[in-house]
Hints:
Low-confidence stretches: 1-6
Oligomer: single chain
Mean pLDDT: 88
Distance between the termini: 25 Å
Shape: globular
Amino acid sequence: MKDVGSISMTLARFDQREKHRRSLFSHTWGELIPKVFEDVPKYYRPGNIVASLGLWELWVWQFVRTIKLKPGYKALDVCAGTNDVGIRLLQKQPDISVTAIDRSKEMQEEGQNRARKYGVHIDSVIHDVHELPFPDNSFDVITLQAASRHLQLDKVLPEILRVLKPGGNFYHCDMLKPSTGIVEWFYLRFLRLSVAWTALIFGSTEASRNCGAYFKDAITNFYTPEELSDVFRLVGFTNVSCKKSIWGGMVGYHKSQCDLVAK
């Protein structure tokens, strides 16, 4: 991974961006997204594979590959969904404990079914991730994959930092706003089409079918890989590094740390 440089985004700019995202998407986050996650648990993984033209598995594999684990570690998977990341972490290092937190009981019910299928145990917590129900300094490793576009980062990131142990690592992966304008133009149009055909193939509900415009707009108003690195630094994470995928950072893999001194 390569460090992407010094902070260029100010706290005031970050606050402005988050307020703007809330003004655009608060209703969608509060009303539409929960309905979508009632619909998609059974086909969440194959749906993502279809929508990404098969690249989803590569992205998740690359993400888990970046995560460093040791026996006895306590890991928290934020917005765990169907426990895809948690299961892979336990397959990678069986001698750790994994806690999954997600506000969707339907996604976690499917996630627990999948964990049993793979013969692993994952503790499940149904809760709003903007207020993590854990003591300070609880986890050695925290992961957040494919969800931050739907979150208020000025609320959830400080919570993640709070429950991360000093010296612990936070690993993040998501679809981001590409750094290159021409890539963004093609990407956003592909994204809307991919959501539409995936909904058609899997017989999605109306809520899921109506998400095409939202997913495009969420990326348009999100952060580039470089901007997100700045955001992590502003919140208080240290040793922030980022690896971008192909196509100008359409997917970014961030690693950051909780400062040993700060706590």
